[in-house]
Structure formats: C-alpha cells, structure tokens
Write a structure and sequence with these properties.
alpha/beta, seven-stranded mixed beta barrel, Glucose Oxidase, domain 1, disordered C terminus, elongated
Length: about 600
C-alpha cells in the first residue's frame, strides 16, 4: 500500500514537471484597445509554444465554452481553420477534445476550467498524433476577456523564457537581513538596559515596557506541536481559518508597529500632556496624548491594510511594513536564555520545515506540499484569501509567473524570527562578555549567506524551498565555531556569562578603605547596614576585608543618600562602638 502511494506521488510530481506556464495575449479585433495577457497552463509534450510574441501570428479566438467538444455532434457547421478554439472542460479526455479540434482545422485549443488548473496530459502515442498546443484557461479569466474586449477578439499563445532570478529577491534579501540584524541588535541592547534599570524606582518608559519572555524546553515542544496542528488544520479548513489568522495578524502587527515607533515618539517635544485621572482600563495610567495618537495611527494603518489587503498593486507594501514591525516586536519580546535552547528550537523547527515541504507531497492525494499549499493559498479556495504571515514582493521581471499562481515571491516570518532569536542571543552574549560583537556580526553574516543559498536552491529546483534547511546550519554552525575558536563554548552553551542581578559599582568603595576597628569587628558587632551591603554586593567583592560600611538608609531595598548631604545625617555605629564618620557612597552605587 505504501509503495503504491509512493508511486502515485511520483507520477503526480512527474506531471508537475511536465507542466509549464504560458501567456494568452488577447487584443480586440476592432482595434484601438491595448492588449492584455492572461495566464495559461500547458503541457509541452503536446506541442511547444514559441518564446517571442513578435514571432506569433494573432488568430481569431473562437468561443465554444458552452460545449465540451467530446463528440462530432459538438462540432459547429463552420470549421476552426486558423482559429484558437475555446471549449469547456469535462466528460471526456483531453485527447478526445484536441483530436476533434485539430481535425476541424484549429491552430490551438484552450480548455476553460472552473476548477483548479492542471496540466493537460496524455500518453506517448497521443502526444505523437497531436501537433497543436493545448492549454487550460481559468473561467474567471474568460469572463474578464469578454467584459473588456467583447466576443470579437484575436489572440496568440506563447511562453516567454523564465528569468534565472527575479530582481525582487534583492528586495526580500535586504528586508530579511535588515530585520534580523536590527531586531537582534535591539533585543540585545534592550535586554542589557533592562538589567541596569532593574532596581531603579521610577515611572519612566523603561519601567512600563513589557518584560521579555524566556523560552523553556517545554514551551518549545508546545509551540512546535501547535504549529503542526495549525498547519494541518489550515490545509483542510483553509477557507474557515484564514480569517482567524488575518485577525491575529492585525492585532499582533498593530502592537508591533506601536512598539517600534514608541521610542521615537517619546522623543518628540510636543503633546506631552497626560490624560486626566480616571478609572477606565489602560487610561487609568494616564498615558500621554502623543502615545494615544500613535496608537490611533497604528490601528488605522492596520485597518487600511485589512480592508484593501487584496489590492496587489500596493497593499503588499503595508503588509511588509506591518510584518517587519511584528518581527521586530517578537525578537524584542521573546528571549532564548542559552545557546542550548537556541539549538533545540532551531533543530526542531528545521525538522518541521523539511517535513512539511519535502515529505508531505508523498502523503497528500494531490501530491502537493502542505507548507507551500498553505503559504501560497490553495488554488481551489473559494475565498481566494492569502495568509499574511509572509513578506511578499511582486515579480519585477516579465514572466508568466507574474500572471499565474505565483505573482509574488514570498518569505515566511518564521524564516526571519527563528534565526533572529539566535542573532539576538549572540548580541546579548557579546555585550555581557565584552567580545566586540563578534558573535552578533558573524551570525548576521551567516544568516545572509544562508538566505543566498536558499535563493540559489530555489532557482535550480524551481519549487518552494524550506528556508530553514539552509538558514539553521549556517547560523548554528557559525555561532558554534566562533565560540569554539574563542574558547568560550562552555559559557556560550549555558549562558553563564550573563550577569544575573543589577550591576554594582564596588570599585567606588575600594578607593576609601574602612577604619581598621570596624573592619576587624566580629559580625555580631557590625552595623546592620554593613551586613545588608555585604549580602547585596557580588561574592568576590564581599570577601574584601577593607570594604566600607554602607549607611542604613541605603540598605538593600532603598535608594542611596545624596553624597552632598550633611555628614551628621549618617547613622552612628551601634553596640557602644566609637562613632566614626562613614565614607560617602558614590553616585550610581547600589547598596
């Protein structure tokens, strides 16, 4: 049974290889109207189409789409001499249709289909008998032809040569690498700044920002299982779930856009007034007027995209903008605490991506990849909606693919977020270990090289590629090699180079040694403030015998006193010890 299914899948894949896209160029027979191109799908084993439109003669397009041309009774009284015939699909084989059309003098046959376009096939003997091209045209395109040009039209069939690589790959490359590098840099910098601001008591923007979420192995497993379930559900219930994904994207992308623009808006000198006191949700925090305007702007951009999302001419710009903002927000929010977690996440998603692209064609009845089918949208979808979780750029070269089912080049958000989390980890490790950002730079370059390899594989294989197949080895192996070369693999693997608490300034206390009597006093006779100070400082510095006592008011939970304050405001030693002036705590030192 398994062997039979594998054989069927191989036959389906072979049929896909024989399939090629072509162009139907239509012009009004009355003249004066500019022509228009439409997508057709044909099998070159019937007859090859010329590559240059200038070498093709325009012929009358004969409309017989009301009949299926399955017998001689369906032939009209007038023959099809020097005409391209259009007939309906169904009730008989492609060979029977084209044999009747060719016998009646037709120069080409277009089979109009209301279903999914498939390559018109036959056997080797039938291919040898037929000398005219056979192609499929969608019923929707036929209606557009009649609406634009009427029923008196002339047309030509041709198949322009596909370019080796479309120029839009350069745009996708810049957007992807720029998002990964900017998101990784921002995530690492914000994480370090958050550590420095951890013990400060203020109401500044840093205090109000969301904390990062550390990814655990359990979260990784749950996430991958959810991805698998959602992908399979989308494959079988695409028309119902696609609107759920669109709604989630709108909410997440508007939040991401707000998060990306908020630091810039906070620097503006106007609209700093706050909302009056109230008990409304969110507004009880009294946000500034400029932040409310920013939130309104982000929601407006998202709503505009949601309404005009199917406008292929310009809506992709809004989608890419929102998508980049979403990716930057996720890279800032989600944090991988160790290289071990990075390796686990990337390897599991590596297997997930390869399985749903290369293995699932052997498991589905249609022989199509579940991943590619969901990402590009099923051709038999009644809604004709596309998933927004991709960066998309229209093809810039003249190509049949720009007219057919692949008018855009796509790159999924997962191909940006998954390696981007590793890049963010590398940047955080660089800052904490003061390694001059060598991990961050090399991992970003490795991501760019992996993306280039993905594009090359796409060109040579001419089918959708699992980008993580190339991105994961490039980024993981590069980071591992750098850590091994710098002899930091142990700390890089476990993340032990990170500082757990807020940074201290013990060097400010070493400049003024404590009085000898106070330093030599037993622990039970020392002031309580000194005991708290010793516990709060790092272990290495707490062992120094000459460390100075810290004022009691600046204990482990309170801010330090002003160094310019009067000396008599400092507490006196307890237990009857002789009072001595304590050294002044330097600004920036946290007790």
């Amino acid at each position: 049974m398994a062997a039979a299914r594998l054989a069927v899948a191989l036959l389906l894949l072979a049929a896909q290889v024989a399939c090629e896209f072509g162009v139907l160029h239509v012009v009004s027979q009355a003249g004066g109207t500019r022509g228009r191109d439409y997508c057709i799908i044909y099998n070159p084993q019937w007859a090859h189409l010329p590559h240059d439109l200038s070498k093709v003669s325009l012929m009358k397009l004969r409309d017989l789409s009301y009949t299926q041309l399955c017998s001689y009774l369906d032939l009209p009284a007038e023959d099809f001499t020097n005409q391209i015939t259009m007939v309906a699909r169904g009730n008989c084989t492609f060979y029977e249709k084209v044999r009747l059309a060719q016998g009646s003098g037709a120069r080409g046959l277009l089979i109009v289909s209301k279903e999914r376009l498939v390559p018109p096939g036959g056997n080797r003997t039938q291919y040898e008998e037929i000398s005219i091209p056979v192609a499929l045209l969608s019923h929707r395109d036929l209606q557009d032809i009649f609406r634009r040009f009427g029923h008196s039209v002339i047309a030509a069939l041709y198949a322009p040569t596909e370019p080796v690589m479309d120029y839009n790959m350069v745009i996708i490359f810049v957007m992807a690498v720029g998002t990964v590098s900017l998101g990784g840099y921002w995530a690492g910098s914000r994480d370090v700044k958050r550590r420095y601001m951890k013990h400060k008591r203020d109401d500044g923007p840093e205090k109000q920002e969301d904390e990062a979420v550390d990814v655990t192995p359990v979260m990784i497993c749950v996430f991958v299982v959810m991805c698998c379930v959602m992908l399979v559900l989308l494959y079988y219930f695409y028309d119902r779930l696609v609107y759920v994904i669109i709604g989630i994207f709108c909410l997440a992308s508007s939040t991401g856009l707000y998060s990306c623009l908020a630091p810039c808006v906070r620097k503006l000198p106007f609209c700093t007034c706050r909302v009056p006191d109230n008990n409304l949700p969110y507004f009880h925090k009294r946000p500034q007027a400029r932040m409310l305007l920013l939130a309104l702007f982000c929601v407006t951009v998202t709503v505009v995209w949601g309404i005009f999302r199917n406008e292929d001419h310009w809506a992709w710009i809004l989608q890419d903008t929102l998508g980049i903002a979403f990716c930057l927000y996720m890279l800032k929010t989600i944090r991988l605490p160790t290289f071990k977690a990075c390796t686990m996440l990337l390897m599991v998603l590596f297997i997930y991506d390869v399985f749903f692209v290369f293995v699932t064609p052997y498991l589905t009845k249609s022989g199509n990849s579940i991943m590619v089918e969901v990402a590009t949208g099923p051709s038999n979808s009644s809604t004709h909606e596309k998933l927004p979780m991709v960066l998309k750029v229209p093809r810039l070269n003249t190509s049949p693919l720009s007219l057919c089912d692949r008018p855009f080049s796509l790159l999924g958000f997962g191909d940006i977020l998954v390696p981007g989390l590793l890049v963010a980890y590398c940047h955080r490790f660089d800052i904490q270990t003061q390694s001059s950002r060598v991990y961050f730079v090399t991992c970003t370059i490795a991501y760019g090289l992996g993306l280039l390899v993905t594009f090359v594989a796409l060109v040579f294989m001419q089918r959708g590629q699992p980008a993580l197949l190339y991105l994961v080895p490039c980024t993981l192996l590069t980071s591992f090699t750098v850590a091994l070369w710098r002899r930091e693999l142990g700390t890089f693997w476990t993340g032990s180079g990170f500082v757990k608490d807020a940074p201290q300034s013990p060097w400010a206390l070493r400049d003024k040694p404590a009085p000898e009597k106070m330093a030599d006093a037993p622990l039970s006779q020392r002031p309580p403030s000194e005991e708290l100070a010793r516990r709060s400082l790092p272990t290495k510095e707490a062992a120094l015998p000459e460390e100075a006592p810290v004022p009691e008011e600046a204990g482990a939970e309170g801010p330090t006193k002003d160094p310019d304050g009067p000396m008599d405001s400092l507490p006196s030693p307890t237990n009857g010890d002789q009072a001595q002036p304590s050294p002044v705590v330097q600004p920036g030192t946290s007790a």
